[in-house]
Amino acid sequence: MTETLAINGGRPVRSTLLPYGHQMIDDEDIAAVVQVLKSDWITTGPKVAEFEDVFAGFVGAKYAVSFSSGTAALHGAAYAAGLKPGDEAITTPMTFCASANCVIYQGAKPIFADVTEDTLNINPDEVASHITEKTKAIIPVDYAGHPADLDSIKEIAEDKNLTVIEDACHALGAKYKGKSVGSICDMTVFSFHPVKHITTGEGGMVCTDNGESAARMRRFRNHGIEGDARQRQAKGQWYYEMADLGYNYRLTDIACALGLSQLRKLDENLSRRRKIADFYNAGLKDVPGLILPAVKNGVIPAWHLYPIRFDPSKFRAGRGEIFAALRAENIGVNVHYIPVHTHPYYRRSFGYQGGEYPASEAAYETLISLPMFHSMSDEDGQDVIQAVEKVFRWYLQ
Ligand SMILES: *Cc1c(COP(=O)(O)O)cnc(C)c1O
Fold first, then answer.
1. pLDDT value, residue 237
2. pTM here?
């Protein structure tokens, strides 16, 4: 009916591949990094505390503790929550594996609770039904940048005396019932990987209002040692104590300088992502059989991803073929996520066979993430809409 798909030998919508995510680094960012490289402290120096203070202020938390990655930050939060062998923590299968791996790092067991069909965020009823006397923490993930049902989760946690570690690696800048993500749960974890809202190359942060948790995490990221080298140098001291087993999970001053510079552009990045989401919503709402991302009342998502789904009964091709057709049009689509429990490691270690979490597994069969990043142009967005229309209309029954 329409033009021949690129996968069948037609002309692709674009001549070059549009990635699904990409960083934006400008001359200001580069100058900030160069300045640190020329200074005395390229790690454990003054930029670390400066980045943490500005970041905490941005999200409205008392403390922010930086880590060498979002994954290390999740590990730090799992440690600060006191997770240990014999404990359980509940998280979602619809996430990047790090949300669950951090529980295993502490010798505890991740327990999955299925998602709701609309937002693909963890379902509070499923959380409640998976709580045992071993449960110590709940780790909701703000899928795609849309905050989870945090009030319901906090209510369950308060009732059972559990710690809530919000994995907000998708949700820097998101709002939930008027509050900033980062100021809502016991601990909130962010990532500065290049596809996220701001980048430090690799990097992560945990925000909390709990001074004791913050102190534990500062020790944990520095081998379990109290204080740091610069404090000792300033005081002319050499003695230090390793109070607990920790890791080297420090974020460098080089990275923190980049983070500070990137943070100045966060508001702009967020409004650009929201504009692209509006553009997709308007441009794709009339394509038959497509399911666009849901947004709940009281939520302003941060739009890390723009995941679409489709009604499989309306198309004569499955996700694999549709995905390949979009790639052939040079649209760098992706899939978020392969449900965590279905990965070989999880099957082998915990005996999952697939079928345990039907809402996540059904969603996975039709999920496709469209390109979503703040440096995309309007023309890039137009190409995505054109390619999605072209491909989905072609395969319509
Ligand atoms: C990116 C991400 C992480 C891990 O962050 P890294 O900085 O890559 O280690 C954890 N959880 C989710 C949901 C993520 O998207």
1. 82
2. 0.97
Sequence-distant (≥ 6) Cβ neighbours of residue 119 within 8 angstroms: 143, 146, 148, 293, 294, 296
Residue nearest to atom 6 of ligand 1 (CA): 70
Give the tens place of pLDDT for each residue, 72-96.
999 999 999 999 999 999 999 999 9
Q: Read off the pLDDT of residues 257-273 as tens digits, 9 standing for 90 and up.
A: 999 999 999 999 999 99
- Residue 204 near ligand 1, beta carbon < 6 Å: yes
SS3 content of the chain, % helix, strand, coil (to 5): 40, 15, 45
Alpha helices, DSSP H, located in the chain? 27-37, 46-59, 70-80, 98-105, 124-129, 150-160, 211-220, 229-235, 253-263, 266-284, 319-328, 344-350, 358-364, 378-395
Q: Pick from 20, 91, 96, 139 the residue to mutate for probing ligand 1's pocket: most ligand atoms within 8 Å of its CB.
A: 96
Instruction: Return the active site residues.
Output: 196
**Can you tell me the distance from the alpha carbon of 170 to that of 324, in angstroms, rounded to the nearest whole number?**
25
Q: Is 95 in the pocket of ligand 1 (CB under 6 A)?
A: yes
Q: Tokens 């692209």: give the residue.
A: 276
